[in-house]
Design goal:
By secondary structure, this protein is of the alpha+beta class. The protein is built from 13 helices and 22 strands.
C-alpha cells in the first residue's frame, strides 16, 4: 500500500506528488492520459502570476498583494473566497525557488503588448517543459507513475475518509489521497447540461476545447454524487474567444486571437455587443469566450485595419483580408450593408486623442452603445482584416469546496485524509472571470498544500522525518 495516492497528472497533481514525496511518503500518481499526452491542461500553459514587493529575478518592478487581490476581485466580480485567494497570492511569491529545484526554468522578462513583464513569470519552453521537468523530478525521487489509469470511482466511508480508488475492477488502496484530475470541459454532455439551449440549439455544441480531451469530470461528478460539498456555477469557466479554425481539442494558447482591443467585435448580425477597450488584454481576454457563447450561433468576428498590424501577437493563421469593408463583409458571410453601417457608425463615434496601446489611453467613443472606452481608432486604413472566433473552453469552475488545508468536506465536515487541488477546486478562488497566470498560481499553491497535508495524514511530516534522521545519525 502506498502512503499517498495522487489522481491526476497536471501541474497541481505533480506539485502534490513532489511535496508528499519530500515529506518522506511513498507516492503513486495515476494519470488518465497516455504518456505522450500527460500533463492535462498544464502542458498548454506558459506563465504564473506572481506577487512581489520588489524586482525579483524574472519579475520587474513590483506587484504587491493588494494590487493582485484587486485584480482578482475585479475579474471575479467578488465571486471569490478572499481567505483562499490571498493564500494563493502569498504562495505565488515564494514558489519559484521550489519550482527551480525540480527543474523548472524561467525566461527573462518580456515586454510589449502583453503587459505582463511585471506580473507574470514565464516558463522557459512553456507548460510542456514545466510538466516534463516535474515528471523527471518525480521519477528521480522514486514516485511511481501509471499512465492510461483513469480512475472511475472511490471507496469512501461514512465519515468521508478515503479508502481506495477504483479503475474498473482494480482497487488501489492508500493511506491518503489527493484529487487533481481536472474539470469537465471535455464532457460535451455535461457542457450541454450546464449551458442549455438558445433558439432550440445546444450552446455547447459550438464550443472548442483549448486543452486536454481527457478532462471528463468523472471524479468531480462522483464526488458530487457522493455528497461532497461543492462550489461554483457549472456554466462558468476559463473561456476564451479563439480562432474558429482551431482543432476541437488541444489547440492551446496558439489559437488565441489578441487583436480584439485594437478593433471591434461583431456578431453574425454584424452588430457590436461589448466594450473592446474596457481594460488591458491580459485582464479581459478570458471574458470574450463567454461573451461570444451568448451571441447567435456562438460566433464573433474581430475586425481591424492596417493600423493594428504589428501591435498584437500574430496569430497562427492569417485573417480574412479585403481592400474594402464591403468586400470584407461579403467574405465573412455577413450582410455587407449592415457590416459597413456598423463600422461607419463606430468610426464616426471615435474621439481619437493620444493613442497608446500600452496604457489606458484617452481614445474613446462618444454617443455609441456599447462604448469603446480605450484604444478607439477609426477602422479606415485598407487593407482590412477579420478573424472568426468561437468560444474556447480551457477549464471549468465547478469544483469541491475546500479550506486552507485543501481538505475535501462532506456536510461541512473535513475529511481526515482526502484532499483536492487544481481545477477541481479552482472555483473557490475563481467564481467567474480570469486574469492571466492565476490558474497556475492556484494549482501550484494548493497542489503543494494538498501534497503536504496528504503526507501528514499518512503519518509523515518534515518534523517527523527530521527526527528520524537525527535518530539514524545518533543525534537524538
Amino acid at each position: 500500500m502506498f502512503d499517498v495516492l495522487i489522481i491526476g497528472g497536471g501541474n497541481a497533481a505533480l506539485c502534490a506528488a513532489l511535496m508528499a514525496r519530500e515529506q518522506g511518503a511513498s507516492v503513486l500518481l495515476l494519470e488518465s492520459a497516455p504518456r505522450e499526452w500527460r500533463g492535462g491542461n498544464s502542458q498548454h500553459t506558459r506563465n504564473l502570476r506572481c506577487m512581489h514587493d520588489a524586482p525579483q529575478d524574472v519579475l520587474i518592478e513590483t506587484y504587491p498583494e493588494e494590487e493582485y487581490w484587486q485584480d482578482l476581485l475585479k475579474v471575479t466580480g467578488g465571486l471569490t473566497d478572499e481567505k483562499l485567494a490571498r493564500l494563493t497570492i502569498r504562495a505565488s511569491a515564494t514558489c519559484r525557488d521550489w519550482m527551480r529545484s525540480h527543474g523548472v526554468h524561467f525566461q527573462a522578462p518580456i515586454s510589449g503588448t502583453l503587459h505582463v513583464a511585471r506580473t507574470n513569470a514565464f516558463f522557459m519552453g512553456g507548460g510542456k517543459a514545466l510538466v516534463n521537468a516535474y515528471y523527471r523530478s518525480a521519477e528521480k525521487l522514486g514516485i511511481s507513475i501509471r499512465y492510461n489509469a483513469a480512475v472511475d470511482a472511490l471507496d469512501i466511508d461514512n465519515d468521508g475518509r478515503f479508502l481506495a480508488a477504483r479503475i474498473g475492477t482494480e482497487r488501489i488502496e492508500a493511506r491518503s489521497c489527493v484529487l487533481a484530475s481536472g474539470g469537465f470541459e471535455s464532457n460535451r454532455e455535461w457542457l450541454r447540461e450546464a449551458w442549455g439551449q438558445i433558439n432550440g440549439e445546444w450552446v455547447a455544441d459550438n464550443f472548442l476545447i483549448r486543452g486536454t480531451r481527457f478532462n471528463m469530470g468523472v471524479l468531480l461528478k462522483f464526488m458530487r454524487d457522493a455528497g461532497a460539498d461543492m462550489i461554483g456555477d457549472p456554466s462558468q469557466s476559463h473561456c476564451v474567444a479563439i480562432d474558429a479554425r482551431a482543432p476541437l481539442y488541444d489547440g492551446g494558447i496558439c489559437t488565441r486571437i489578441d487583436c480584439v482591443s485594437l478593433g471591434v467585435m461583431l456578431n453574425k448580425n454584424a452588430q457590436r455587443f461589448y466594450d473592446e477597450g474596457e481594460d488591458f488584454w491580459p485582464k479581459r481576454y478570458a471574458i470574450w469566450g463567454r461573451l461570444v457563447a451568448l451571441q447567435p450561433g456562438q460566433i464573433g468576428y474581430s475586425v481591424i485595419d492596417s493600423k493594428a498590424i504589428g501591435r498584437f501577437m500574430p496569430p497562427v493563421f492569417p485573417g480574412t483580408k479585403a481592400n474594402t469593408l464591403h468586400e470584407l463583409g461579403l467574405l465573412l458571410g455577413l450582410d455587407p450593408v449592415a457590416f459597413v453601417h456598423t463600422i461607419e457608425e463606430y468610426n464616426a463615434a471615435c474621439r481619437v486623442g493620444t493613442f497608446d496601446h500600452g496604457i489606458l489611453d484617452d481614445c474613446h467613443t462618444e454617443g455609441l452603445t456599447p462604448a469603446k472606452t480605450h484604444w478607439a481608432q477609426p477602422i479606415d486604413q485598407a487593407p482590412f482584416y477579420a478573424y472568426a472566433l468561437r468560444p474556447g473552453i480551457t477549464f471549468t469552475y465547478l469544483g469541491l469546496k475546500v479550506d486552507e488545508r485543501a481538505t475535501v468536506h462532506f456536510d461541512g465536515k473535513p475529511s481526515a485524509n482526502l484532499f483536492v487541488a487544481g481545477e477541481m477546486m479552482a472555483g473557490n478562488v475563481l467564481g467567474k472571470g480570469y486574469t492571466a497566470g492565476v490558474g497556475m498560481a492556484i494549482g501550484t499553491a494548493f497542489g503543494r498544500i494538498a501534497g503536504t497535508e496528504a503526507a501528514n495524514a499518512a503519518g509523515f511530516s518534515r518534523q517527523k522525518k527530521n527526527n528520524q534522521e537525527k535518530v539514524r545519525n545518533g543525534d537524538a
